[in-house]
Amino acid sequence: MVRRREITDEPAVDDFDFPRVLNAIADPIRLAIVTQLAAAPGDLSCGSFILPVHPSTATHHFTALRQAGVIHQFYAGTSRMNVLRRDDLNAVFPGFLDSVISAAAKASTPAR
């Protein structure tokens, strides 16, 4: 059994701040993290993302998403795992995250 250790600097649902969530998702690297998480069948380790930045820069982006409440992170053994807080975001901002993910998918699809 893998020991799970929580990272505790993310906001509670009651403390979500819409401008902070918008700011976190507006960055192209962070949006890529969100869309990759949305497409994943389960939790993803930080090292499994395809990002055009150095790992230390990626850590900054994961932290911004976590502290805005967009993702939840935890350690499973030595891996830092990531999961979207989809249910929490939908409870506070209904349909917002799904709209962002849908728009990002359309924007990345080449026009015919």
TrEMBL record:
Residues 20-98 form the HTH arsR-type domain. This is Helix-turn-helix domain-containing protein. It comes from the Bacteria. InterPro entries: ArsR-like_HTH, HTH_ArsR_DNA-bd_dom, WH-like_DNA-bd_sf, WH_DNA-bd_sf.
